[in-house]
Amino acid sequence: MLTYHFNHELGIPMYEYLYQCIKNDIIQQKLQANEKLPSKRVFAKHLQVSLITIENAYNQLLIEGYIYSIEKKGYFVNSIEYPEIPTQTVPTILEKPQIQYFIDLRTNSISLSNFPFSVWSKLTRQVLNSQNSELLIRAHQQGCLELREAICEHLHAFSGMNVSPSQIVIGAGTEYLYNIVIQLLGRDQHYALENPGHRSIAKVYQLNNVHYQYISLDHDGLNIDELKKSQAQIVHISPAHHYPTGISMPIQRRLEILKWATQQHTYIIEDDYDSEFRLRGKPLSTLYQIDQNERVIYLNTFSKTLAPSFRMSYMVLPPHLVQLYHNKFAFSACSVSSFEQIILAEFMKQGYFEKHINRMRNSYKMIRDELLTQLQQSVIHQDINITEENAGLHFLLHYHSSLSDVAIIEKAHNIGLNIATLSQFYEQPFESQTLVVNYSGLSLNDIQLAVNLLIQLLSRQ
Residues 112-128: what's their mean pLDDT? Predict the structure, then answer.
């Protein structure tokens, strides 16, 4: 007779414990195929449990196929062929330990003191207390209407763009929206990328198995002659502030690229990732704004304006692509939770977003100015040259060194400094003798240490 000792400290129902015991004996072949199990009444009396406990355990084993029953004969162990247990254990994949740096001048980040925690907490409570039914329903495929309307108002106020909420698609990060664009326009298209540029964009295209090529830059941005000679049908550019060179594309080059797209019936993906933080003069007009032929797909993100942890970006589709989007993605829901979208919508509608951008712009300008001042007053000031410091949250630091770019990065890591060289963003690396300095994560208190580490990095001793 099967005998099991019940452990009441496990915190699970008795029938579930019994079911687990019998199942384990079947899997370990302690109970053989077609072996008869005790009758329910006899088993209950033997184990000193209720009949319902035995019935529930047997019923669960029946449902899962471990046993079968024959009317008026009882319950029997099923014949089950188990796969052979592998002799080798599955290798454990160890994550690389995250390196801790004294100063990070590479990663897009934000100082803790700059995030509006109190306002965000207040709005979170307001949204929860409102008991808005939209918090609990399936999100619209393009995102919550409330947030799309707020984005429309922001784009009109900030850059003069006139768009409809029906044109906006909200997604969990810009990389996610890149994937959506590829699925929307087709994997059979030929894409073009700026060289240099973010390597993550090329990774998205590689994973989608699409053809792409790099187009080099000149002093005005994307080389139009090279673009015309290419096989590109879709080109990805950041005309307001190219990363990492910092180039702002002049109006003539913008019009030339728009003319190319119109004549070729192709599309331009405009990545306007940090236009809110132009530190001198007015924001530049977007390519979307001056496009008269619906050739531009506009992308922007809240990761720069709020924090990298906000995996929330949006794109503005040309009107004629909206129906195609609906046809292809009608089955899907928005990839960002309604809860986060509604809080952000309130943040924008109540004027906090505009105030936050203005405050951040002033803060970044103060940090940049202090960082540049200390560099110009440092012992290496004659050996460096700063360019492209007036737009966005990074600048280029040109230097003279006998070390290769690879050696400079290795030296930087050894002294606790995370930074990138310009050459790392090119398709074919070369000796750039240029650092890309991202100061978005610095506070005023960090600047002295950052300058000291840069001096140590670039010192000729």
Answer: 91
